[in-house]
Amino acid sequence: MDLEHKFCRFDTDVTVVEGTRIEGYASLFGKCDQGGDVVARGAYARSLKRLLAEGRAVKMLWQHDPAQPIGVWEQVREDERGLYVKGRLLDTVAKGREAAALIEAGAIDGLSIGYRTIKSSKDDGGRRLLAELELWEVSLVTFPMLPSARVAAKGEDRPEDGGLHALAEALEGMRLNLAGD
């Protein structure tokens, strides 16, 4: 099987702190991307456990280029929303400094995962449900797969800080209640 890439952009979920620290979600569970794929909860669990047992880490790359590592992911884990990543861009690497500047300027706003599909299935709508993935890397990219999301630069409000996330959840709950009547 070939290495696949999933380009994701997240609405103020990835931030640059102190010029080099970044964190956010590299993948969101249950969201259909432009390629018709949906990542299931738990899809990364075995891969992350295997990497830990082998003393290896998920790589942080620039535009999926294995010749351009730009930092390190210090934390990669699944939670109820998706694949959370936290790390730092290396300011001793020219491309790492460039990536930090581009994120802060809003010129780069995407994350993308590099992975191999282990288990998947198709739903009635033709979407591919990704049940198990072997995660290789998480890259900073120009063109993400989820168009409604973006990376936040240092100083921008994050949804959980600004209350927008809670408002969105409340509106969605109201919409579901109205649809059920």
TrEMBL record:
<feature type="domain" description="Prohead serine protease">
    <location>
        <begin position="19"/>
        <end position="154"/>
    </location>
</feature>
<keyword id="KW-0645">Protease</keyword>
<protein>
    <submittedName>
        <fullName>Phage prohead protease, HK97 family protein</fullName>
    </submittedName>
</protein>
<dbReference type="Pfam" id="PF04586">
    <property type="entry name" value="Peptidase_S78"/>
</dbReference>
<dbReference type="InterPro" id="IPR054613">
    <property type="entry name" value="Peptidase_S78_dom"/>
</dbReference>
<keyword id="KW-0378">Hydrolase</keyword>
<dbReference type="GO" id="GO:0006508">
    <property type="term" value="P:proteolysis"/>
</dbReference>
<keyword id="KW-1188">Viral release from host cell</keyword>
<dbReference type="InterPro" id="IPR006433">
    <property type="entry name" value="Prohead_protease"/>
</dbReference>
<dbReference type="GO" id="GO:0008233">
    <property type="term" value="F:peptidase activity"/>
</dbReference>
